[in-house]
Amino acid sequence: AKTRGKNTHELFQQHMTDEASRRMLLENDLRAALDEHQFFLVYQPQIDIEQGHIIGMEALIRWRHPERGVVSPMAFIPVLEATGMIKDVGEWVLHDACQAIHAWQELGIWRDGMKVGINVSASQFLDASLTHSVRQAMESTGVDGQVLDFEITESMLIESVDDTIKRMHALRELGITFSIDDFGTGYSSLTYLKQLPVDVIKIDQSFIHDIIADSSDAAIVEAIIAMANHLSLGTIAEGVESTEQLAFLQQAGCQRYQGYLYARPLSREDMTDLMQSTATL
Ligand code: C2E
Ligand code: CA
Ligand code: CA
Ligand code: CA
């Protein structure tokens, strides 16, 4: 029994060590990533369903790891959040996106009313320095807050609704608008929706995925769009991959969409080319 106990203990420790060391390696690598310019942003166009043209885009972070190649944000955003590094990386995201927008404005391909959606984590959003960071990004790049839309999730509201609303009002004064990301996947959506100064609902891609085959998903999406329209909120469907899905969304009255059907997230250069070619149409 003694031997078995020892083995179990060793196994357990071994497991812990593997987990912990993997996490620590990731953490160390992430600390170097910002200094060594390994992060970059890609941009996924958002399309007006009626007009068919680009009305904005979502900025999505990528990490070019020296050995592992391009790493998905799903693998490292949680680590950045847990370690507090999300604050610095979030600042970098804001600054880099504003810089890109400024460059597009200089090229004359940025149309009035366009916006870049920025994903903001809960810890980043509730940090007291956020408004200051946003102002700094705007000032150093020379862009206006009106070009930014912050994507927040319902999960952030669980911690502190009042603080979140206060923060939103402060940022709205800079011209920033708000979208609720992954709408429908959190809970208490409807209670908060009434109180929150939001502009747009992003319908989660999990509902869009089976919209053609699954009649409950179809009904949920129709209901979300109808509700948003009644509340004068904008709607974006995420993860649109087929023309059938797009046709469904159009007849349901959805305003905008993003997804592989139109374009995957693009490098800054490819986004520039796309904007250039669509601007002259
Ligand atoms: P999200 O905000 O829900 O972003 C949408 C995800 O769907 C993106 O994954 C995008 O590449 C993917 N996507 C877009 N169109 C389609 C489609 O047609 N089909 C499918 N299957 N997927 C599609 P990505 O880029 O891997 O980002 C994953 C998540 O990481 C994001 O989910 C967001 O929560 C987080 N994230 C990304 N960038 C940032 C950032 O700068 N800051 C923070 N805090 N989080 C970020
Ligand atoms: Ca998002
Ligand atoms: Ca989303
Ligand atoms: Ca998501």
Automatic annotation (TrEMBL):
Source species, domain of life: Bacteria
Record domain EAL: where: 23-279
Entry protein name: cyclic-guanylate-specific phosphodiesterase
Native organism: Natronospirillum operosum
Residues of the full protein shown: 408 to 688 of 691
